[in-house]
Amino acid sequence: MTEVVMTQTPPVLQGPSEKERKYDRQLRLWAASGQAALESANLLLVNSGSGTVGVETLKNLVLPGVGRFTIVDSTVVGEADLGVNFFLDESSLGKMRAQCSTELLLELNPEVQGDWYPKSEGTLNLQDFLATSTTFTMIMYTFPIQPDNLALLEAYGRQHNTPLVAIHSAGFYSYFRIFLPGAFPIVDTHPDETATTDLRLLTPWPELVEFAKELTKDIDGLDAHQHGHLPFVAILLHYLERWRETHDGTNPSTYAEKVAFRRLVQDAARRDNPEGGEENFDEAVAAVLKTITPSTLPSSLREVFEYKRTHPQEEHSGFWIIADAIYKFYEKHNCLPVPGNVPDMKTQSDVYIKLQNIYKAKARRDVDEVLKMVQATPGGRDVDPAEVELFCKNAAFVKLINPSGGGGGGNGSFDGGADRLATVTAEEFENDKNAEAFMGPLSLIPIYLALHATSHVFHPASSEQILAQVGRLVLGADENKRVVEAAEEVARAGGGELHNISALTGGMVAQEVIKIITKQYIPIENTCVFDGIGSRCQVVRL
Amino acid sequence: MAPDEIPAASGPRWQYLDRIRTRAGPFTNKEMFDGDAVVPFMDSMKILVIGAGGLGCEILKDLALSGFKDIHVIDMDTIDISNLNRQFLFRKADVGSYKAEVAARFVENRVKGVKITPHNCKIQDFDEDFYMQFQIIVCGLDSIEARRWINATLVNMVDEDVDDSLKPLIDGGTEGFKGQSRVILPTMTSCIECQLDMHAPRAAVPLCTIATIPRQPEHCIEWAHIIAWDREKPFPLLDKDDPEHITWLYQKALERAQEFNIPGVTYARTQGVVKNIIPAIASTNAIIAASCCNEALKIASNCAPSLGIPDENNYMMYSGNDSIYTYTFKHEKKDDCPVCGNLARDLDVDGRWTLGELVEALGVRPDAQLKKPSIRSEKKTLYMQFPPSIEEQTRPNLGKSLVELGLEDGEEIGVTDPAFATVSFKFKLRFK
Hints:
The structure holds 2 protein chains of 2 kinds.
Chain A: H1 18-22, H2 24-39, E1 42-46, H3 53-62, E2 68-72, H4 79-82, H5 97-106, E3 113-117, H6 126-132, E4 138-142, H7 147-160, E5 164-170, E6 173-179, E7 184-186, H8 206-216, H9 224-228, H10 232-246, H11 255-268, H12 279-291, H13 299-306, H14 318-333, H15 349-375, H16 385-394, E8 399-401, H17 417-437, H18 445-452, H19 463-473, H20 481-493, H21 499-518, E9 527-531, E10 536-540
Parallel strand pairs in A: 1-2, 1-4, 2-3, 4-5
Antiparallel strand pairs in A: 5-6, 6-9, 7-8, 9-10
Chain B: H1 15-21, H2 35-44, E1 46-50, H3 54-64, E2 70-74, H4 99-110, E3 115-119, H5 128-132, E4 136-140, H6 144-157, E5 169-175, E6 178-184, H7 207-211, H8 217-232, H9 243-259, H10 267-275, H11 282-301, E7 315-319, E8 325-329, E9 345-349, H12 355-364, E10 374-377, E11 381-383, H13 388-394, E12 412-416, E13 425-431
Parallel strand pairs in B: 1-2, 1-4, 2-3, 4-5, 9-13
Antiparallel strand pairs in B: 5-6, 6-7, 7-8, 10-11, 10-12, 12-13
Helix pairs in contact in B: 3-4, 3-11, 8-9, 8-10, 9-10
């Protein structure tokens, strides 16, 4: 990992603090910035049913140090709870489940705060509770849920722009859905390191050209050591120059031309040495197809550029001000700011550092240009330059989740609504006809339908009852053979959870909650269904 | 149907579990399933968990709440503060205690009626008799070496004439937001050795880069680790868990980085390189451990088809970096697998190679990864790492070429490695 180090502060020689040691393995994933976001989050779990999946989710958020959580659950602990929920014990029997689980969860991490509601049996008033609580960062709720409580949570989410997560786990099946209050942009998406190399060999700037020329001006006269330590960037720039001399000044562009160019580079390696070749030329050859490519605008960034803003607060958000500036930069230069990282390559230390500095300096200039554009925008003076720098570095990988804002269903609903479900179901059934022919995995939408049909069912339902409800949700879906099987499987669970499936689902939900709170990595859009019989999941946009 | 009409074979506490494990569903293989026999069978079953770390803690919890009553757990490690962000059975006061012991005690106290026996030792300390007592083995390990050892041991234990000598092996692994779970029926389905090349070790940095032309912070750290430490020996033995030792390496790496103007050497990165730290979080461990235990429940009860049924899927890959993606597939058994196959595996060599170069190649090949190989040809012993007297006797062979040693194209060699005591890896030499 090579960062664009703009200023060199002298490093501190002391070891890590106790907190850094405790969180070391996760700080390597989301860094101090992600940790700070996690520690300032305030989560709500509205728990129900057999009650395990939500608590398992919280466990995975308490351990990495989420700031604060509250469990709302009016259930009194019974025998069946102890067979499925790890955060209860014998002494919990007859007590409020919310309280017992909160206390056992808090043991996991003394830095986390937790609370429960209601304080005594039979007094759950969700409306009062929401009205008197500090604003929540995210809300998770589990099925089955009373329709009026669900409506209260959805209203809260709209009013406070709070992301909601709906979770349903029964028997071998589960799903969860994420409802984001609007378009959700992510800059720090953590792409694979190998994907981020962007060397601009087809559009080098003067300093880079000069650097390569200096190293390669007498390429044939270099001694074995010098020749064997030319950085591959200089090798490719040199032979591109040669190529253009014999190709009317054009770069290799078709696949055949690139292969021919690769051959040209390959043939230039010296083989009269004990190794029978040169490692730096091998690196150059291997890099041809990937690096000799004009830079194009990635579709995910195009989506950002083309997004029509609807929320008034988007006008003042740093993200959109920077996105506008990057767009102007792109229009002006026909390329994105240079990210500035240079992959490791065989060469002398000082040559590599010089090359690295050339890329860093160019990245710095591009950041400065974007920053000036940002600061010329109304409200742009308030934008943190570090945010501009991060955006420039990751521009090609910036991602907009939920671009259609509050769901495609209109009328303020969080998702695409019943029409969207019917459309997706029809598409999935159609795809399954092909999947069967190609032995591909079949759709998990039948599982979603069967679980969704029991969203508000608090007693074990028969497969007939489940199918009847599926038919009301999506006309005719109850006749599909795989939906019938899924309904039988859901009926088998009788609304009860299997600990493993809830632990697994709680892991997936916690990952997604962390991604949304830290604004790092890429969350799902917007529904994930898990099949514990086939051991696989499917993400689908509903 | 009202809730009390659903039978609960082992009482109200386990009613949710019993609804599933004692009653067939639409996907249950009815010929293999006897709902009445499940509870007595699982009550008497012995299951072994290898590893009481990030995955192991989760596995113990999940098995205890899946109806397993007699669980053993092996782990030689003690608790470190950096475990506490995910190994949720441990508290700060437990730092320094044995993981297996603390984890076993915690789950036993929490879940009534479950017996957990801890073993604070290495898996290699036990012989086949020990492993024979279990019906299922679940692994939550961070080391490929240990996985290969238990895999080879379980493959060797399979004996057609001995009932229950085939032990299903369920294995989980995680790295950051990613992980995998897999089920192996030793000798019947693809084993860990068959899948070894899916977990190729990271390419090592060439020594000359570290010694003479460092470019990355990692090169400076490796220099401090490999060269400076050896030269200056600031402490008698390098303890990678001792902050004083890591600080020494960090300072050395930093000096070297400053000499070459290389940015980016930090304490955390020094520790990461030296200890080969893999990022780990609670949520990923929860996913993979639960997937493994879900398979264990299905195997133990037959209440639904599991991974690892011959000719069916046996491997689930999970990735949570970019949305969520699972890929569940069948990894094919390899006929030339050195552990579970019958055929020798082709090994491309050059007759001009010295035996020493062959030894090196066996260490780095993704499908071999044998770090301390002893080699025999069909005719004679070529090189033995142990005992020292034989090592000395055979050492001169390391300098001789394969041709000089009389090896021929197509000849089979047998390779043993102390990491896999009982197994002889067969390779067929293919001269370039």
